[in-house]
Amino acid sequence: MKLKIFENRLANGIITPLVAGVVLTILAPFGTDDFGLLSRSFYWIGLTVAGGLGAMSINALLNVIRPDASVLIRALVQSLGATLAVAPFVIGLQWDGGLFGNLLSLFYIWIIAIVISTIAELTARRSHTEPLPSIRPPLFDRLPPKFRDADLYAISSEDHYVRIHSAVGEHMLLMRLSDAEDLALPIIGLKPHRSWWVAENGVDEISKTDGKLQIKLKSGIIAPVSREGAKRVREAGWV
């Protein structure tokens, strides 16, 4: 899970802007074809990476204020953060371009930032919806036959038992939640609450009510999210 989180952050904040910087260096838009190759590389790669860091910063704030924001809203907000991050560099490099020239340059940068932010956000969303591994978790061998080929949505703890939430219904097992969580590997999931483990594939939607996150499973069941659980949900990129 930690490796996946690290890869997602790189894709959103560094890798995608870096690739975009290389592409813009080759295309040399907006008159930068007058620059030498080295100068053009520093210009575009520097701007896109700085913009990526700005987008990451504003996205972290958006996760707190609007965790259920759509791809379009996230892309627009991130593009504004990226544009603000590179504005001092653009204005500094074109200080004699006049107010109109600076605003026009920033507008072009903003359009580019929208494209980059949209690609990065769609890439992140796609990585969160990859199909589950074909290896059947050991937990399934302890379930009745009809549950063994069904999608696992979540596991909740009830006294000395755990309740298995799946696409074909629910089933109780006598075991600890921590043991059930280990037996659910290699399915990707996390603990949003001390008494719950939720599979990423089992999430229907994540919403915010009265300032608190809650997870709605594909079965319609609502899984609670604690304060510490909310951090894990955000770090995993589920919102």
Question: Explain this structure to me?
Answer:
This protein is α+β, with helices and mostly antiparallel strands and 239 residues long. The protein has helices at 2-27, 37-65, 71-93, 98-127, 177-183, 227-235, and strands spanning 152-158, 161-166, 169-174, 189-193, 196-199, 203-209, 212-217, 222-224. It has two domains: 2-127, no CATH class; 138-235, Beta Barrel (OB fold (Dihydrolipoamide Acetyltransferase, E2P)). The strands form two sheets. It has a five-stranded antiparallel sheet with strand order 3-2-1-5-4. A hairpin with a 2-residue loop joins strand 1 and strand 2. The protein starts with a helix and ends with a helix. Residues 1-7 and 129-133 have low confidence and may be disordered.
Defining key terms:
2 domains, five-stranded antiparallel β-sheet, OB fold (Dihydrolipoamide Acetyltransferase, E2P), 239 residues, three-stranded antiparallel β-sheet, 6 helices
Structure in a nutshell:
The chain has helices spanning 2-27, 37-65, 71-93, 98-127, 177-183, 227-235; strands at residues 152-158, 161-166, 169-174, 189-193, 196-199, 203-209, 212-217, 222-224. By secondary structure, it is of the alpha+beta class.
Chain-averaged pLDDT: 82
Q: What's the order of the H and E elements?
A: HHHHEEEHEEEEEH
Q: Over the alpha carbons, how many angstroms does the gyration radius reach?
A: 23 Å
* Number of structurally distinct domains: 2
- How many distinct beta strands? 8
Kindly report how far apart the N and C termini lie: 15 Å
Helix tally equals 6
From the spread of the alpha carbons, the general shape counts as: elongated
Spatial order of strands in the largest sheet: 3-2-1-5-4
Uncertain parts = 1-7, 129-133
Largest sheet: 5 strands, antiparallel
Bin the strand percentage. 15-25%
Portion in helices: 40-55%
